[in-house]
Amino acid sequence: MSALHKFIFEGLPVRGMLVRLTDSWRELLARRVAEHAHAPPVQSLLGEMAAAGVLMQANIKFKGALLLQMHGDGPVKLAVVEVQPSLSFRATASVVGEVAADASLEAMLNLHGQGRCAITLDPQDRQPGQQAYQGVVPLHGDQREPLQQVSQVLEHYMLQSEQLDTRLVLAADDQVAAGLLIQRLPVQGEGNLGGLRNEDEIGLSDAFNRIAMLAATLTREELLTLEPDRILHRLFWEETLRCFEPLQPSFACTCSRDRVQAMLRGLGREESESLIAERGEVEVGCEFCGRQYRFDAVDVGEMFTPEPNQPPSSGAVQ
Q1: Are residues 271 and 150 in the same domain?
Q2: Which range (125-129, 148-152, 205-209, 228-232) has the least confidence?
Q3: For the whole prediction, is pTM greater than 0.85?
Q4: Residue 201's domain spans which residues?
Q5: Are 168 and 52 within 8 A, CB to CB?
Q6: Is 159 a domain residue?
Q7: Both 199 and 275 in a single domain?
Q8: Would you put residue 52 in left (φ > 0), alpha (ψ -120 to 50) or beta?
Q9: Number of domains the chain is built from
Q10: How far is 163 from 141, CA to CA, in rounded Å?
Q11: What strands lie across the sheet with 250-251, from one edge to the other?
Q12: pLDDT, tens digit, for every residue of 238-271?
């Protein structure tokens, strides 16, 4: 089953997580209807983003949805992963045109240097006026050179946003999406007013640098095929690890008939009834899971029929 393993290195300011999405990743792919099936490079992109999104959500313990998005000026216009606090996740991509079998990240998303990576934290119980937090970085490094891997993009993001050294190793195929995260823990007083600044410690931790070098030796094949305990032993057999009870990520889509109805109400009565007149029914498909929602003339009429003692709906977006 899919599992996420957290661990720390005893006596060292370093923590880690290892995730393997197996049954949940295959379920997500199986839900993709044929016309939304993606070329292998796009599938790998989504799988690596899914593994990374689960790792990042588990790392910050945020009470709300984490959205990881990459959008650009290549054939992949948008790739998005959403992870809930329970570590349930979903993913989709919008592709226009052909994607070569050996397409790189740059070829898919960053043909003319306009690619971006955005991470949004959307609170579960958002208060009136409260905005979701979003951080955006370009798909290039500090030297303006294109970043060639999803892991490099996210390392760059976390270095800028959290100002903590991070090493990521990601891999995905049509069976498994997996990732390893190693991160330096803040030292005492770091990041506090009057104390050390996070950036003052970047790159200076010998313990993190040594463990990150070990993590970098992990191959794609090993990450996709070996069990977590074998991976950790192979990489860190000389270290003392404290491992915690595994968590279980799962595939789950948050779409529902009620949410689609709310979207149609936002379109307004006139627009919704014109769709009925043109097609006989309104059909809306979820891009994440492929589920189809159908509404006939009676359904649409009921949507805009006010409840007793309620004023009529104008159809305007609220």
Answers
A1: no
A2: 125-129
A3: no
A4: 3-251
A5: yes
A6: yes
A7: no
A8: alpha
A9: 2
A10: 15
A11: 133-138, 116-123, 64-71, 76-83, 88-95, 250-251
A12: 999 999 999 999 998 888 888 878 877 777 777 7
| Lookup: tokens for 240 | 């003392």
Tokens representing residue 218 in the block: 């992990």
Give the pLDDT score at 203. 53
Q: Locate tokens 């992949």: which residue?
A: 76
User: Count of residues for the chain?
Assistant: 318
Residue 46 token pair: 């989504």
